[in-house]
Every structure is written in structure tokens, then in C-alpha cells.
Amino acid sequence: MKNNNKNNNKIKITIYSPNYYTYGAMVIGGALQKSNTKYNIKLIKNIDDNNLKLLLKSDFVLLSLYSTSQIIDENLKNIVNFIKRKSKNTKIFVGGPVSAYPEIILGELPVDGVIIGEGELITPNIIEGSKEGLAYRDINNNEIIINTPKLKKLETLHADLLIPNNIANQSIRGANVYIETHRGCIGNCTFCQVPKFFGKEIRSKPLDEVLNEVKQFKKRGVKRIAISGGTGSLYNFKKEVNKSMFIELLEEVSNIIGAKNLSVPDMRVDYVDEDTLNAIKKYTIGWVFFGLESGSDNILKSMKKGVSVKKNLNSIELAKQCSVKVGGSFIVGAPNEKEIDHLLTKDFIVDAELDDIFVSMAEPIPKTELCNLVLDTDIKNNPSFKPHNGQYKKLNLTEGEARCFDLMLHSENWKSNPNMITKQLYSILLNESKKDGKNIRNITELIFKYDKYLI
Ligand SMILES: C[S@@+](CC[C@H](N)C(=O)[O-])C[C@H]1O[C@@H](n2cnc3c(N)ncnc32)[C@H](O)[C@@H]1O
Ligand code: SF4
């Protein structure tokens, strides 16, 4: 490999995570830094003239991607094509949760390879020329080679993070950074990427290492921290929830950063109780976001959510009794969702009186069960494509978009703190539904294009 930087012999590596410095990008940066002091590593999240020059001067560009829509994003494609045209010696690798479907990435982006799975152990070796854990195109016959990593995943998480100096300037849903306390989820939800990518076993980071990271972030000016990881209360889960460790985690982190600056949003309704909710109230901003998904038991069952509508309502009630604010996430437009399911979800929202509500259209993330269901469904019957002929007919929406729009309007009316539907709010929600609808159609077309790798 020819080194672009002749002056100081350092290998230049630029990690580009579009829009945000993701935790994953910081983990990879830290792992590389630790593995070799001869690496000159930069982390970027946007493209301006300086960063474009930096990319062209790099020996390696690592694209850290977490969502399917990033693979088909025209801007990203243009950047990759530009680097390939202008700097023949720069190698570009893609990593992150999208690496679960390397054939799609290699089909859509002219990159040199895809780093498969959790990258912290294998990326340093790949930079040194190893092909273990790399998917790439064989230049002789254009075939895709997938070298599944032989290295075991980390059982106990450790991370030496590369934290950018301007981390405190970013806001991801109100937090400067989402930190990782554990990986994996015991849930089986058919639409979800978390157990598919990280697995169903929970692997946690020792508390002192979490606290050390929080201190490092604080030193860099970070004010607000959120704990990510699918389901917060699964921290140190081993056969059962380790309530005391979860509570200790919240207490200790909030001692450093302050309760009003800490949130632990993602929570499953069946993995909270009075003690955990009281701790959330005491040591965080006092909010939970449950994945409620639907007001129809049939849909919850088909999503393998593992809980019923009644359980959802009971946990919302319990959280309110503990003075915890409750947000709920809903999914509309799954191929098997019927009009009656949608009506049941609207009734549920009235009964639940949630403090905040997120509605998204079902995204067929490649390799999930939902993806298979979408591939098995005739496009004509797929709500993301089927024209809507009901009350919003004039708006030219698909059935999925109409349900998304309808549920968002309904949510504004029935939140604990309702909003009046002004013209402006109406058009914001309409545009959001259309944008979501377009994104889902693009992803659906993508999975049909690569269906031979998915079924
Ligand atoms: C709020 S968290 C889930 C919290 C918690 N782990 C649970 O399951 O209750 C993530 C939410 O993002 C939404 N989501 C995840 N994957 C999705 C997909 N493929 N399509 C649409 N929405 C999705 C779901 O509403 C999901 O509940
Ligand atoms: S939706 Fe929540 S519970 Fe279900 S698999 Fe994903 S993270 Fe786990």
C-alpha cells in the first residue's frame, strides 16, 4: 500500500460518520489509535472544503454507517465516487450496523470493502492488510468474497474512545452523545436491527469504565448524555434483569453529569418496575420511551413483541404513578396491518395519554424478519406503495403515508399536552409522512433489487 503522506510516514485514516459523531465511530477511532501510534486518525461528520481535502489525502477512509438509507444517499455516493476518481490510492471501507448486508453495500457504493460486524477487533488488522472480517469484490472475477471474522466478539465491552474536540457542539435528539453501556437485546422484534447486529446475549461494560468515559466526555465539554443500547435496563442482564446494577449505573453517571443532563430513553415495558422507574425519576431527566408499536394485539403478536396491549397500558400507568414522563414509539404500515389495527392504535393512543409520541413507517431493514415479510408481499398489496383512497385521497398519499399522517395528527390531539393543529403543523406532519414514505419505498426497492442475498 502506497502511503499518501510522505512527510511523516504516518498512515492517515479518516473516519467519516455522516451528520453525527456516532459512538461506533469513536470506538473504531480509539481502537485504531491504541493499536498503532503511527496512525494519524481524524473523525469527521460533515463535508466542507477542508474535510474533502482531508479525505483525498487519506490513506484510508472509513465510512461509519448505521442506516440503510445512508447506503443509497446520493450525496454519500457522490463523495465516494469523487474520492475514487481523484485519489486512486485511498482505500475506502464501510463499517457499522449496515455491514450485516455487505452485498448491498458493494453493489451500491464503489468502496474497497465492508468491515463485517463489530469492528473494534478487526479494523486495525484490516488496515494492516488482513482480509479477515472483510467483504470485498475479487478484482479477477468481480465476485463478492465474504470473509466472516473468526475473532470472537468482545464478551465484556471495553472501549478506548477517540473523542473529537467539538463533540459538545452536536445534538442528537437533545443529547451531545449517546453512550454504550451494553450490547445486544433479548427481544425478538421482527423489525429490529439491534439483536440482529449485536446478538441476543447481553454484553455489558464494567461500571468503572462507563464512568471513566462519562468523565472523558465531560472534560470535552459534553453537557447532556443519553444511554443507548436498545433497552437501557438490560445493563448487566444475566438470565434476569440486574436491577441493582442498572440503578447504580444511573446513580453514578448522574453524580458526574447531573440528573437533568442524563437520559435513558429506550426501555421495554416488561423490563421496568417501580424501583427502576423511581431511579429513572431520581437520576435522569425522568422520561422513558417505550416501543409500544401498535394498539392491536394481532400486530404485536406478528411483530413478536412479546407483550400485549394490556401490558403496554399497565406499564404506562406504572410509570405515571412514579411521576416518570412516558413517550411511545409506534410503527405503521407493516404489510399485514389492517384498517382495524390502525383504528385500534388510535383508540390506544386516546387511552394511554402519552406525553410524547413517535410514529414511523415500518422499515424493512435487510436481514430482519420484516424484510422477508415485505419481500413475500406483492408490491400491489404493500401499504408503502398502495395508493390511499380514503379520507386523505386528495393529498395523493400511499396507504402507509396516510396512516402515518393520520396517526401523527391524532397523536397531537391526544397527547397529555395536546397541540392545536395549525396550518403550519399540518404541513410539517404531512411532509414528514411523505418523506418517510419515500424513504421506505427506496429501501423496499433496494431489498427487491438484492433479494437473492436476503431470502
Ligand atoms: C423506542 S426504541 C425501543 C425501546 C425498547 N427496546 C422496546 O422495544 O420497547 C426503538 C423503536 O424504534 C422503532 N423502530 C425500530 N426499528 C424500526 C423499523 N425497522 N421500522 C420502523 N420503526 C422501527 C420502534 O418503534 C422501536 O420501538
Ligand atoms: S425493539 Fe426493543 S425489545 Fe425489540 S428487539 Fe429492538 S431493542 Fe429489543
TrEMBL record:
SMART domains: Elp3. GO terms for molecular function: 4 iron, 4 sulfur cluster binding; catalytic activity; cobalamin binding; metal ion binding. Residues 171-416 form the Radical SAM core domain. Keywords: 4Fe-4S, Iron, Iron-sulfur, Metal-binding, S-adenosyl-L-methionine. This is Radical SAM domain protein. The keyword 4Fe-4S applies. The keyword Iron-sulfur applies. It comes from Methanococcus aeolicus (strain ATCC BAA-1280 / DSM 17508 / OCM 812 / Nankai-3). Its cofactor is [4Fe-4S] cluster. Residues 8-137 form the B12-binding domain. It holds the Pfam family Radical_SAM.
